[in-house]
Amino acid sequence: MAEEAVELDQGLGRTVKDLTSGAAGGIAQVLIGQPFDIIKVRLQTTTTYPSALTCARQILAHEGPLAFYKGTLTPLIGIGACVSVQFGAFHWARRQLEAQNLDRDPTSTSLSYPQFFLAGAVAGIANTPLSAPIEHVRIRLQTQPHDAGKLYSGPIDCVRKLSAHNGVVAGLYRGAGVTAFREAFAYGFWFLTFEYLMNSDARRNRVERKEIPAWKIALYGGLAGEALWLSSYPFDVVKSKMQTDGLGEKARFRNARECARVLYREAGVGGFWKGIGPTLTRAMPVSAGTFAV
C-alpha cells in the first residue's frame, strides 16, 4: 500500500509538472506568434493580399500596430490549458505505451517512433475540444471588419453570437472535425520529430538527454514546429475557410469535405498552402519557445 501511495504521488507530481510546463510554453507561444498568425489567417481566407509582406503593410497602415494582436485574449486565456492538455495527454499516452512495451518485453526502455507519433496524435485529439472553439473565436475576431463595421465587440460577444446559430456544436464548434484531423497529424509529427532529434543527438554525442544544452533543445523544438505545420497545413486551411464561412443560411460549405472540394476547384493544390510562408516563419520561434520554457 505504501509503495502504491508513493507511485500515485509521483504520478500526480509528473502530471502537475507536465501541465505547468505546458501552460508556460503556451503563453510564450501566443505572445511570439500572434502577429504571424493573423497574417496567415488573412492570406488563407481572402484574396485581398498578393503576399505576406503586403498583408502586413496593409494591416499596419489601415488598422494600426495593435491589429496584429486582434483576437489575442481568447488564445492567451485558453492556450495555457491547450498546451497543458497537449503535454499532459502526450506524457499520459507515452506512459501507457511504455507500460505495454514492458509487459511484452521487460528489457524495453523506450517507445518506437510510430508509438511517439501515436502518443502525439492522442495529445492532439485530446486538445481538440479546447482548441476548436478557441481558434474559431480568434479567427472571427481576426477577420472581422475594422472600426464601425465590427461584427463582434469582443470574445464573449463572439461566443454568444456563434452559439446562437444552430447551437453550440454547429455554431461555436464549426470546423471541429477537420480540426481534430489537423491536431492528430500536427502533434503526432511534432512530438515525433522532437523525440527523434533529441534521441539522435544523445546517441551521436554519447550523452544523457538531460545533458543536451538549452540552445539545442530550442533548435530541435523549432524544427519540430516546422514538421508540425508541413504535415498538417492543408487541414488548417480548410479549417480556417470553415471558420470564416457564413453561418446558418449564409453558410457556403456544408462540411469540411465540400470546403476542400470547392477550394481545390477554385485554387488548385496551391490553395491548400496559402499562407505557409509566414506560418513556417512563425513556427520556428514559437515551437522553440514552447520546448525551451
Quick synopsis:
This protein is mostly helical and 293 residues long. The protein contains ten helices and no strands.
What does this structure look like?
The chain is mostly helical and 293 residues long. The mean pLDDT is 87. It has helices spanning 2-45, 52-63, 73-104, 113-143, 155-163, 167-170, 176-205, 214-243, 256-267, 276-292. The longest helix has 44 residues, at 2-45.
Q: Please report the number of helical segments.
A: 10
Low-pLDDT stretches: none
Protein structure class: mainly alpha
Helix residue percentage: over 70%
Q: What is the radius of gyration? A: 20 Å
Oligomeric description of these chains:
single chain
> How are helices and strands ordered from N to C?
HHHHHHHHHH
- The residue-averaged pLDDT reads 87
Distance from first to last alpha carbon: 36 Å
**Biggest pleated sheet:** none
Tell me the strand percentage band. under 5%
Shape, principal axes of CA atoms: globular
Number of E-type strands: 0
Q: What layout of secondary structure does this protein have?
A:
Blueprint (H helix, E strand, L loop, with lengths): L1 H44 L6 H12 L9 H32 L8 H31 L11 H9 L3 H4 L5 H30 L8 H30 L12 H12 L8 H17 L1
